[in-house]
Write a structure and sequence with these properties.
Oligomer: single chain
Number of helices: 10
Helix content: 25-40%
CATH architecture: 3-Layer(aba) Sandwich
Largest sheet: 6 strands, mixed
Distance between the termini: 29 Å
Order of helices and strands: EEEHEEHEHHHHEHEHEEHHEEE
Bound molecules: adenosine-5'-diphosphate, magnesium ion
Strand content: 15-25%
Mean pLDDT: 89
CATH class: Alpha Beta
Strand order of the largest sheet: 6-7-8-3-9-10
CATH topology: Rossmann fold
CATH superfamily: P-loop containing nucleotide triphosphate hydrolases
């Protein structure tokens, strides 16, 4: 569980707060999406969790523990982090990228893995994210955008973290691959019961992925919190309705099997849980 308690962040030299008095609780073992336009403070919120940023005020508890009191390096190694650019290390192979944290942690923490075990875990991760093990010895420059993102996901998940932070990880890949990657995240999250905090400005992506969505506006102001179903069927106000693309004369359709279609007939995804 992640608890944001009155978190504010004002960057030096800035007149407005990037995050203003944000309080919210994220339950464990689900995919929680922060949805909002560019500049509303999503990235800042994520970076406060793994202490890439320090809040100007307020605090963040991870399973009851203030992250400010945890060792920074250990904290970052125990949280999976995936960014829009996969940010792979260019001069080491795919396999070495995937096993980075395992190798860094080795000997310093509880478990000592042999290099054969680390290699096996890396290859297993490649398979899990749907990559051919033949790619293991390639360098990141020789991967497609979609492959690089899969490696990014494999690297983040290799230590089997209980928490993953994903910051618009698929924003730059083409729509078809993007859907595959979204399915991959859902499948892995289900399998490993990871808590995923996923940031996006893309409504379709949020609907596809989220157990819970938090709609944000500037200053990380909370506009609505709920399931995709809650938001789509009962937007809190005009801001949320506009953001989701719902207008009174163009209703969303809830189809068979809980599938949701946008006004122009595009399938948006499937709503989880509840009945209609
Ligand atoms: N390092 C920084 N220094 C100054 N301003 C920043 C910095 N990082 C983000 N901001 C500002 O904070 C606000 C929120 O940014 P960000 O969290 O990146 O939003 P989002 O991820 O939702 O696009 C924006 O106005 C942005 O310009
Ligand atoms: Mg951002």
């Amino acid at each position: 569980m992640i608890e944001f308690i009155n978190v504010s962040k004002q960057f030096p030299g800035s007149e407005t707060k990037a995050v203003s008095d944000f309080s919210h609780t994220i339950p464990s073992r689900e995919i929680h999406v922060f949805l909002g336009s560019s500049g509303c403070g999503k990235t800042t919120l994520l970076r406060c969790v793994n202490r890439m940023e320090t809040p100007s005020s307020g605090k963040i508890l991870w399973d009851g523990e203030d992250v400010a009191n945890l060792d920074k390096v250990q904290l970052r190694r125990s949280i999976g982090y995936v960014l829009q650019s996969a940010s792979l290390f260019p001069h080491i192979t795919v396999l070495d990228n995937v096993t980075t944290v395992l190798r860094l942690r080795n000997g310093k923490e509880d478990k000592k893995l042999s290099s054969a075990q680390i290699r096996a875990r890396g290859l297993e991760m490649l398979e899990l994210v749907g990559l051919n093990p033949d790619l293991a010895n390639r360098y990141p420059a020789h991967l497609s955008g979609g492959q690089a993102q899969r490696v990014g996901v494999a690297r983040a998940m290799a230590p089997n973290p209980s928490l993953m932070l994903m910051d618009e990880p698929f924003a730059a890949v083409d729509p078809l691959v993007r859907v595959q990657l979204q399915d991959l995240v859902r499948d892995l999250q289900k399998e490993f019961k990871t808590t995923v905090l996923f940031v996006t400005h893309d409504v379709d992506e949020a609907v596809r992925l989220a157990d819970q969505i938090l709609v944000l506006s500037n200053g990380a102001q909370i506009r609505q919190s709920g399931t995709a179903r809650d938001l789509l069927t009962n937007p809190a106000d005009q801001f949320v309705a506009d953001f989701l693309g719902i207008t009174p004369d163009r209703e969303l359709t809830l189809g068979a099997d809980n599938r949701v279609f946008s006004p122009d007939g595009r399938p948006l995804g499937k709503l989880s849980g509840g009945s209609q």
